[in-house]
Design brief:
The chain is mainly β. The protein has helices at residues 127-132, 160-163, and strands at residues 32-33, 41-49, 55-62, 72-79, 90-93, 99-107, 114-121, 140-146, 157-158, 168-173, 179-180, 190-198, 204-211, 219-223, 229-236, 242-248, 254-260, 271-277, 284-290, 293-302, 309-316, 325-341, 347-353, 361-367. The protein is built from 2 helices and 24 strands.
């Protein structure tokens, strides 16, 4: 549903929108370009639309390189015109040389509060050390919110004790948007897709956390009954059933799915989706409602079994049973992504892409459903 925003900011005009589904030219217009604005690398896109119609495009600003550890800040840019122009970079959270990352935003539609879940670790603690228990500290979970449409943010508050079990080592929020449940017994619940690794078994699982008080406090939901999955994305099906779609570490290079009928407290046995091939990478899944028509699901990822290339958005008109229409957004190197419904009611994608490497920057691209082909 489109909203009318009530404030106007002076924006930097950045040409980052291209329409249609033909692969763009060899030059990419990056919203975040690695090597600029004080950061050697930008990674991990996440995007939401606020109640006022403002687009908030989050990323990790990596000071000294593209590695997953070290001096990493959470940053955001805002757009009041559906992505045609964008604000200057705003630093949401910086903790010196430590790692602030994995943005997972969600909007409470009742209050307009924008909530951002994130993870933190010491600069010197890398993922393998956190997993094997040799790190100085561990992976922690934090909560921030904005009441002014993303212009300013609350001081990060730690919620690790509520969101992470003592026997877990590695932990990730998102990185992708969360959802607010619309239908059924759990209407109003905010849900963030997450993942973790068990200390004893070293097994990877997906799980969710949720809030029933507008994002002020969070509790741990259920984990998948099987392992070898981690970074996940979530949407709501008609009737209130939740659908989780997960990065898969088995030899079969397809996405795994699971459903919940109790608001994310428990999850069904994993089921592979043979239409959604992947090279082991993050992805995005959202519900796309159209007035007077049945809802669509949209899914984005680098659609290749071998490499992070071929960023593709697929559309399902039967709630994920099949994916008959697709749009190849960019054939070249590409990796993480996040879909968003625009204030105008259209669809757009925020994704990592480059000419030689997927990590040359983050691109915003508006899409037209007319350009999707079977």
């Amino acid at each position: 549903m489109p909203y009318i925003w009530i404030s106007v900011l002076l924006l930097l005009s950045i040409a980052v929108v291209s329409a249609g589904c033909q692969p763009p030219p060899r030059h990419l217009d990056h919203l975040y370009r690695s090597g600029e604005e004080g950061y050697q690398c930008f990674r991990i896109p996440a995007i939401v639309t606020s109640n006022r119609g403002t687009l908030l495009a989050f990323a990790e600003g990596r000071r000294n390189g593209c590695g997953d550890a070290g001096d990493i800040d959470l940053v955001v840019k805002r757009s009041l015109d559906s992505g045609k122009t964008w604000s200057a970079l705003i630093v949401v959270w910086s903790d010196g040389a430590n790692t602030c990352g994995n943005p997972a935003p969600v909007v409470d539609r009742k209050t307009g509060r924008i909530i951002l879940l994130s993870t933190w670790n010491l600069e010197t603690d890398h993922e393998p050390h956190i997993i094997d228990g040799s790190s100085r500290d561990t992976r922690r979970v934090f909560l921030m919110h904005s009441l002014d449409d993303g212009m300013s943010w609350s001081t990060p508050g730690e919620i690790t004790v509520d969101a992470k079990k003592p026997g877990w080592t590695w932990y990730a929020t998102g990185p992708v948007n969360g959802i607010q449940v619309v239908e059924g017994k759990f209407s109003g619940r905010l849900i963030i897709p997450c993942d973790h690794i068990e200390a004893e078994t070293k097994k990877y699982f997906s799980h969710t956390i949720h809030s029933d008080d507008g994002g002020l406090s969070w509790v741990l939901g259920g984990s998948t009954p099987s392992d070898q999955v981690n970074e996940c994305t979530i949407t709501e099906l008609p009737g209130g059933t939740l659908l989780l779609n997960m990065r898969n570490y088995t030899s079969v290079r397809i996405r795994q799915t699971s459903t919940s009928t109790d608001g994310g407290t428990t999850w069904s046995e994993l089921k592979g989706d043979t239409a959604l091939v992947e090279p082991v990478c993050q992805a995005s899944l959202i519900r796309f409602d159209r007035q007077g028509q049945k809802p669509l699901l949209a899914f984005s990822n680098p659609a290749s079994r071998d490499s992070r290339i071929n960023m593709t958005v697929r559309i399902s008109d039967d709630l994920g049973e099949s994916w008959k229409r697709k749009c190849v957004v960019y054939e070249g190197p590409s990796a993480y992504s996040n879909l968003v419904v625009l204030p105008t009611g259209g669809l757009a994608l925020l994704f990592e892409a480059g000419i030689r490497s997927p990590y040359e920057g983050i691109v915003f691209r508006a899409l037209s459903l007319d350009d999707f082909r079977e």
